[in-house]
Write a structure and sequence with these properties.
With 321 residues, the protein is of the alpha/beta class. The longest helix is centred in the C-terminal third of the chain and has 16 residues. The radius of gyration is 21 Å and the shape is globular.
């Protein structure tokens, strides 16, 4: 399932004199648009709402030293979260989402599940990466906790972005990540403290300089690390890392409760065996999911995952009444 935005002015023909561009950073109502020659220009949205997000392909109209977004081209996908109050878009036209967590402090399976569901719903490939593999015991516990996700077929990586031991270990993230990122736009997502900034600085050594330059260009007078930014990893501008702000909550209010099972591979695998087509997998007789949970062997659905499914189903049902 893919989400397509309906940007302001999408019904108007392209205004004469517009140029093609790519949104590479967003700060409130301003966005930074990159031209085909690599030059970057600050642009403002046409109208009251800012519909452009990082990764959007846009048509913009130059005006003195800045520009105006006239049209957002149709999106391949949009990765976002939504709570009761507002929608927060991370980026558009992604190839994959790298969900980065750390062995210590202990990661939240609730947050991980929500991010995976959002990726599945948007039709974007998720990769799960666990940082701090140099912390042997905490990493072992965390890796074991991720066993259900390996069983579901998600691609998993172990990283030591800032290893305590000296040596060549600092190259590990580059060696394991680069083949997966080559030629793709990858959004790096994760809670504060997972190592996102360290990974960005490792892969793009000049990232802090770029951020400072953007901040100065926008005359914001403050650091802009809380905004989403696209960084090119290669000179050919074919491989991109998109750095996003850390988050504490990840709302899924854009997901219909009856669609939830379809975005959880372990639940989905047994939902097709249900007696009723509108089974909620919570209490119905003849439910394939409940039957699997009660099987005498080792169920392929973990107790923690099923508990998360029930909690999310209840949460999403509440928002619709």
């Amino acid at each position: 399932m893919k989400h397509s935005g309906k940007p302001a002015g999408h019904l108007r023909p392209a205004v004469s004199g517009t140029e093609a561009g790519l949104v590479v950073a967003g700060f409130g109502r301003h966005v930074l648009v990159e031209k085909s020659d690599g030059e970057r220009v600050i642009c403002h949205p046409r109208g009251k709402k800012n519909q452009a997000v990082v990764g959007d392909r846009v048509r913009w109209l130059p005006s003195e030293d800045e520009g105006t977004i006239e049209k957002v081209e149709p999106r391949d996908n949009l990765f976002y979260r939504q709570d009761e109050m507002r929608t927060k878009s991370f980026a558009a036209n992604l190839d994959q989402v790298l969900i980065l967590m750390a062995a210590e402090p202990e990661f939240s399976e609730n947050q991980l599940t929500r991010a995976l569901i959002a990726a599945e719903a948007a039709g974007i490939r998720p990769i799960i990466a666990l940082n701090k593999s140099d912390l042997t015991e905490p990493f072992g516990r965390a890796w074991t906790k991720l066993a259900p996700y390996r069983a579901m077929g998600y691609q998993m990586l172990s990283l030591a972005i800032k290893p305590k031991a000296s040596g060549d270990e600092t190259q590990t993230p580059v060696q394991s990540l680069m083949p997966l990122m080559q030629g793709k736009k990858t959004l790096v997502l994760g809670p504060s403290g997972a190592g996102k900034s360290s990974l960005t600085n490792l892969l793009i050594p000049h990232a802090q300089v770029l951020t400072a330059e953007i901040s100065q260009a926008l005359n914001s007078g403050k650091h802009t690390t809380t905004s989403t930014t696209l960084y090119w990893i290669d000179a050919a501008r074919s491989t991109a890392l998109i750095d996003s702000p850390g988050f504490q909550e990840f709302g899924l209010h854009h997901i219909e409760p009856m669609h939830l099972a379809a975005y959880m591979p372990d639940i989905k695998a047994h939902a097709q065996n249900c007696k009723f087509y509108n089974c909620t997998h919570l209490h119905e007789p003849g439910c394939g999911v409940i039957s699997e949970l009660k099987s005498t062997g080792k169920p392929s659905i973990s107790a923690s995952r099923y508990r998360l499914y029930g909690d999310l189903f209840a949460e999403l049902s509440e928002t619709r009444y």
